[in-house]
Amino acid sequence: MKTVTLPDGTAVPALGMGTWMMGEARGARAEELATLRRGLELGLTLIDTAEMYGEGASERLVGEAIAGRRDEVFLVSKVYPHNATRARTIAACERSLTRLGTDRLDLYLLHWRGSVPFAETIEAFETLKRDGKIRRWGVSNLDLVDMAELSTTPGGEGVGTDQVLYNLSRRGIEWDLLPWAKARGLPIMAYSPIEQGRLLADRELARLAAAHGWTAAQLALAWVLDRDRVIAIPKTGHRARLEENAAALDVRLTPEIRAALDALFPPPRGSTPLEML
Ligand code: NDP
Prior knowledge:
AKR; alpha/beta; NAD(P)_OxRdtase_dom_sf; NADP_OxRdtase_dom; eight-stranded parallel beta sheet
């Protein structure tokens, strides 16, 4: 398994599992649980969830999927911006831990920037860290100017990642945020790495993938995995698709394929505001 090293030296799988929209439909639950467990077997041991997802339904599903094998998992959850005050962050984390059936998170993220000052949220994260409730913290959906502000806030140097929208059709961060993060040794977590499935409808991508015996999903994920210090967290509730996506780890991109992808999905030519889903 390709790994990405966090600022504290911890290596995590470069391919993990997203869980937005999971745990919400009763009829889908058995297959979703089987999918997450299959992912763990295949080494996709980083699982991303959030208190927002199904208002706790995703965390409850993940808790059930990892029961008895918590130590194998690198568990990521997120706090709502409106819960990101000193006291509410700690209470929100406790609720997430209960739903997940665990005593600690490996990474706890501020889901997006709200009105609570960074300093207050950082203080809560550091308290949770001291109490052993979280191992490290990070942020999500922060553009470069917010990251610059965060990194100069007292304690802000402790940030472990920025989880942002990044895929072939959303390359804006390559202009500024990605180089900035790289210069600081800060990994990026790419969410919606197949653009919530929309990339798979791209005929040219499908044609290029098929020419090499891959699917469009595999090529799109392989492109993200080919980046330096980027973690991809695709979501699927189906075992067959999970296995298909995991095989992206075996795809090796050549300079010709990279160039063909650049022609189909050009890199940014200037600064663009960070997009968010
Ligand atoms: P993804 O790009 O991962 O796409 C997920 C969609 O693609 C689902 O509808 C899934 O369907 C489908 N899919 C997955 N694999 C395949 C395949 N091989 N063939 C066909 N269809 C496929 O989008 P997400 O928005 O879910 O992003 C991934 C994760 O990132 C989220 O689940 C969440 O954990 C995180 N995220 C974080 C955000 C943030 O603000 N921090 C925002 C958005 C996402 P099915 O499940 O039916 O197989």
